[in-house]
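TL;DR need C-alpha cells for one chain.
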Amino acid sequence: MEYQNPQQNRSTDISLVQPIEQTQVKNFMANVFAYMFVALGISALFAYLFSTNLYLLQYLINSTGTGLNTLGYVVLLAPIGFVLLMSFGYSRLSPTALIFLFIIYSAINGISFSFILLNYTSGTVLACFLSASAMFGIMAFMGYTTKQDLTRFGRIMIMGLIGIIVASLINFFMQSPTMNYLISFIGVMIFTGLTAYDVQKLKNIGTGMQYANVPATDVKKASILGALNLYLDFINLFLFLLRLFGGRRN
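>> reply
TL;DR here they are.
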C-alpha cells in the first residue's frame, strides 16, 4: 500500500475549503449590494415621479400651495420610524417582513426626496448622483479589499456624525450659510469614510456568520440590514454633495 502523508491530506482539504468559504462571503456581500441597489432604484423612481408630476405632488401640499399638508409631514417623517422599526425589531421580524419594510421605506424616502429635487436643477442632481456613485464605489472597494482594521477609524467617523447632527440642530435656528457649508463639507467626508468602514464591517460579519454556521434565515436578515446601512451611507453622501455643489432653480 502506498503511504499517504496525513499533513499533505490536511493541506489539500484546507485548499478545497478556503475557496468555498470565500465564495460564501462574496455571496453574502453580493446580496447586501443587490438589496441596496434595488432600494436605491425604488427611491429614484418615486423621487422622479413626484418631482415631475404635479398631480401626485398636490396630495402632499396644502390647499394654499405654501407648505406641506398632514400627509406631506407624515411622508417627511415616516422614514425615521421605518429605520427604527427595522433596527430595533430586527430579532423579531422575519426576512420577508424586513424586505417588505425596506421596500416601503425606500418608496416613502423617494417621495420625500422629491421636495429636495424640486429645489435643484436636473443637471446638478445628475452630476451629484454620479459623483456620489463614484465616491461610494471607490470607498466600498477599498473597504472590502484593505487588510487594515478600520474599527478605530469608523469610531472617529461615528463621533463626527454625532457632531454634525448636533451642529445641524444648532444651525436650524441660526440659519448660518457658512456653518451650512462647513456641515455639508464635513458630511461628505464622514459618509465617504463610513462607506469603507461599513463595507469592511459587513465583510467581517459575513465571515463570522459563516464560521459560526448561522442559519440561512439570520444570514438573509443580516444582509437586508446591511443593505440599509449602505443605502443610508450613499443617500447621505449624495444629499451632502447636493447641498454643497447643487445649483438651485430660480
